[in-house]
Amino acid sequence: MDDLFLNEQIPYENGASIKVVGVGGAGGNAVANMISANVGNVDYIAVNTDAQALRKSGANTCILISKLGLGAGGRPEKGKEYALEAIDEIRNSIKDADMVFITAGMGGGTGTGASPVIAAAAKSQGALTIAVVSTPDSMLGEEKVNIAQDGLKELMNHVDSYIVVPNDGMQQAGHKLTYKQALKMADDVLRQSIQGICEIASGSGHINIDFADIRTAMEHQGKAVMGIGTASGENRAKQAFENALKNPLLLDTSIKGAHGVLYNISGHEDDLLMDEVAEITKLVREYVGEGGKTLIKQGILYDNRTDGTISVTIVATGINNTKSHENLTKVDEIKKAKPTGAVVTSMQDKLKKISKEDRNLQGISSRLNEDYFEIPTYLRKQND
């Protein structure tokens, strides 16, 4: 999966105040990943019961919610208890925020137990509250999966929208990855999910989506999905759009009939053509439908480092929880002929071809603290 760097820094001095709260081990990893990727001008907060992991997060604000600092022992009830004990500090850290992201891994103790408490605090203070969480690989056992499901159900009650990144999906898309590479990939998917929405909300583009529209699209809407597609060469606009729909972040969920669709188009200012923007706009509206019930908003961002590549980020909210294969079916209908000479980088194809020279892993490796992502540390944090 190609990294989505729509802008090196995200200025929002005159826009929305955005805070990202990483909860537990996986949430801390996501925060560290975003900081390493130079997603700037976002306030980062790390919340953990593990003092050692907290020190490595790199967040602006670190909140240790356990006096002993030894973790929650894989028990969500302890994570919830510790978060409630530190609720005043948590509320103070997110006050005055327009948008709060809660990112965590479901299935452990801290992320599963503390995330709903933090989300409730954010919503009570008027922030648009969005959760971006991962769920465990089924190979970790039924008990962990059940804990994750129960935690997600609780979290859903306290957020406006939520995006779920299933680690099973990462396994299916990247079955030839080493275990360590797969862990980094899962962390990077969490980062890109948040970054994609931050880019849309930041007001840093040539054509921006108003924060009021973002709130309308995402407030009280429940399940959301997003896709990121890139392409270069002939027919790159259509290919990037199709790749976004095939993106494993959407899995097999249809976005047709969504309450809101926010999409961002990114390319070099010297070669992003008006015809390409018009083509993507037409495809989005054809795909979603023009029934008048879906809020559709477009942003355009110039990225002069793209070197002939165009990127499309799609965020759809108010999604029906019933999965379908409508996305891939519609993509096949859109295709009339395969492009020649196109260099396509869909996330799933990229993962299947991944190697040490792959652009994505190069980007990740250059930005991450390798020691922080050693496998023993990660396995220890699964219980947090």
From TrEMBL:
GO terms for molecular function: GTP binding; GTPase activity. It holds the Pfam family Tubulin. SMART domains: Tubulin, Tubulin_C. GTP binds at residues 25-29, 109-111, 144, 187. InterPro entries: Cell_div_FtsZ, Cell_div_FtsZ_CS, FtsZ/CetZ, FtsZ_C, Tub_FtsZ_C, Tubulin/FtsZ-like_C, Tubulin/FtsZ_2-layer-sand-dom, Tubulin/FtsZ_GTPase_sf. It is found in: Cytoplasm. Its main location: cytoplasm. One of its GO terms (biological process) is protein polymerization. One of its GO terms (cellular component) is cytoplasm. Keywords: Cell cycle, Cell division, Cytoplasm, GTP-binding, Nucleotide-binding, Septation. Homodimer. Polymerizes to form a dynamic ring structure in a strictly GTP-dependent manner. Interacts directly with several other division proteins. Belongs to the FtsZ family. Essential cell division protein that forms a contractile ring structure (Z ring) at the future cell division site. The regulation of the ring assembly controls the timing and the location of cell division. One of the functions of the FtsZ ring is to recruit other cell division proteins to the septum to produce a new cell wall between the dividing cells. Binds GTP and shows GTPase activity. This is Cell division protein FtsZ. It comes from Mucispirillum schaedleri ASF457. The gene is ftsZ.
